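Read as chain and fold; for instance:
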Amino acid sequence: MKSSLPLFSTILASTVHDMKNSLGMMLEALEAILEETPKAKSRKEYGVVQYESSRVNSTLMQLLATYKIENEQMPFNPSYHNLYDFIEEQILMHSPLLNAKGFTYSIDVDETVDAIFDESLLSMVVSNIIGNAVRYAHSEIAIIADTSKNVNISICDNGPGYPGPMLEMAGDYLQGVNQSTGSTGLGLFFAQQVAELHQHDNMKGSVKLSNGGLLGGGVFQIILP
């Protein structure tokens, strides 16, 4: 009997694409409401709603991109980008939630450095990690980029850090799938896939998690050769 999995995957990908488009329209409408909302408190509440809607949209985009990567349908277009401008753009995307929660942030990236990466894919990864950092941290995040040997982007926070079981996954983040807890493990698994698409001189990109770092909490690193 022929497996129905490929058909299901195709239907799922099509459904995700449709849901992503609907959420995009909702976010546009919400931005219009925000612009006409004078009260600061209401704007903060809307900011949280806007972020959570964006988070769902981001998850759907990652799910669709994962499907395309697995089926070798995902375009991979690395090119030169200013690293500071790229990081700053990811931070600005989260400004509604940062403002709503009273968070501070810092960017330690050489403004003169250009790096080669796929902007669309890396944006999904970095944006997702920043969002998670803001959700779990206490009040502060920091983004650092070291380009002395490769492109090493670190996202640090002052939260409780990554739990032990997550640190032990080390490179096999599909283990994060847990139906009983509702954890899909998609964010880290997708980050790992995107990192490995970036290759140079027989080296692949990688993802690393740790605790401590600049702010004493969780540290996410994506390293591109």
Summary: The beta strands are 79-82, 104-108, 114-117, 140-146, 151-157, 199-200, 203-204, 206-212, 217-224. The chain has two domains: 5-70, 79-224. The radius of gyration is 18 Å.
